[in-house]
Structures are given as C-alpha cells and as structure tokens.
Amino acid sequence: MTAEVTHGIRVSVDVRFAPEHSDVRNGDHVFVYDIRIANNSDRTVQLLRRHWHITDSLAEASEVEGPGVVGETPILGPGEEFAYSSMCALVSGFGRMEGTYSMLDRDTGRRFEVRIPAFELLTPWYSN
C-alpha cells in the first residue's frame, strides 16, 4: 500500500493485477486499484475532480481528467473517509499511475489540490 498526505487529506492506494479481467495474449492487462481518502483535517472538504497521469511501458503516456470519482463527488467532514475501487488497462504488464484530486474547502470556498501517490502497475511476472 502507498499513501500520501496533502493539506491534511490522506490518500492511500492498494493495487493488484486482475487476471479475471485481462486478456494478456491480446495485450490487455487490467489492474484494480482501491483508494481510501481520509480527511484528517479540521475542515469539511469535497472532492470535485480527478486528474491521472498513466504510464505504460509499451504505449504512450496518457492523462485522464474528469468530475469526481466513480460518479461521485463525496463530501468528507473531519475524521471521515471515502473508499472506492476502479480499474486501469495497460498494453504491457508494467506501468505507473499518479495524479491529483481537486478539492473544495466547504468552510472557506477555497479550492486546493491533493496528491494521489504514485503507484506501480505490475503483473506477477514483473514482481520480485
């Protein structure tokens, strides 16, 4: 598991290769990542947008940006958490993801960025 704290918001990521969703012979390597966002600050915040940087060892890097996560824009009070799972498909069995969440401080109206820690996407045969 990988984690990072920005402005009191802790983002942790756990990732695994999903052979049940993959077709490796045709260059379709699917990874499932579980994210937990914990508001360790003393303010109420809302996740507005996500921005991902995705690197695939056999394809061009790509970016994904859009509103919320998994169709939601969660509001987190102090001490609250939000968790979700999503997937990423790569051509290769080795890649990397990292990004940011655009957040809103609901108390002040100020927007700020929270880092999503970088994590590797590795099929089992790339692992040590």
Structure notes:
The model has no long low-confidence stretch (mean pLDDT 95). The strands form 2 sheets. Strands 4, 5, 6, 8 and 9 form a 5-stranded antiparallel sheet that branches. The protein is elongated, with a radius of gyration of 16 Å. It has a single domain (2-121), classed as Immunoglobulin-like. It has strands at 2-6, 9-17, 29-39, 45-56, 59-67, 75-76, 81-90, 94-105, 111-122. By secondary structure, it is an all-beta fold. It contains no helices and 9 strands.
Which terms would index this structure?
128 residues; mainly beta; Immunoglobulin-like; five-stranded antiparallel beta sheet; four-stranded antiparallel beta sheet; 9 strands; 0% helix
